[in-house]
Amino acid sequence: MPPSLAHITTWLFDLDNTLYPHECEVMALVERRMSAFVARETGLSHDEAYALQKRYLNEHGTTLAGLMAHHGVEPRRFLDEVHDVSLDSLNPDYALNDLIAALPGRKIVFTNGDSFHAGRLLTKMEMGDLFDGIFHLEHANFIPKPSLATFELMMKAHVVNGADTVFFEDSPRNLKPAHGLGMKTVLVGPKALDNTDMFVDFRSPSLKDFLTSLR
Ligand SMILES: [Mg+2]
User: Fold this and answer.
1) Range of the domain at 192
2) Is pLDDT of 101 > 90?
3) CA–CA separation, 40 vs 102, rounded Å?
């Protein structure tokens, strides 16, 4: 364990593209269904709908939050539709599961996905018993990361002390509030090593690579 993580007692994980590799096509399938939803809802062409979807993701934290703010979309209808995707590409990685299980302290999932999506994926990856808690989008009243209010809600719900916590994410902007709250931050994913944000403490191509490097 590097000295800068020796004090960690709470291990906090994003779900999508963090607990499974970016190469897995689950989020690509979800995003395709989001594009179809946005196109139908707005009457835009597919390309315009995709651009709007990405704009909302950047400006509101999720596409859904933008749709709720600007189009009055009911979250349940959107979530049920976009998460109805095949999980055939998602398989348990027992070596990764063992690495997570061996971490000293509590493990919590902090996701912008809803409870159905989180439960379904964790079950498919056989990670259901690995975590002490899950904080999902319904817990956050549909207000996604990187909202500071959502971080604070999560920390209150699970009695998380920022100074004792490390947060793993594939989305850099979600690490910014974490750093401000005193957490150590780890960016994972194929583009992580190119990142230069001051609020990122560690970078690794994947969660598995990083946890392996701790051994
Ligand atoms: Mg993610």
Assistant:
1) 3-21+91-214
2) yes
3) 46
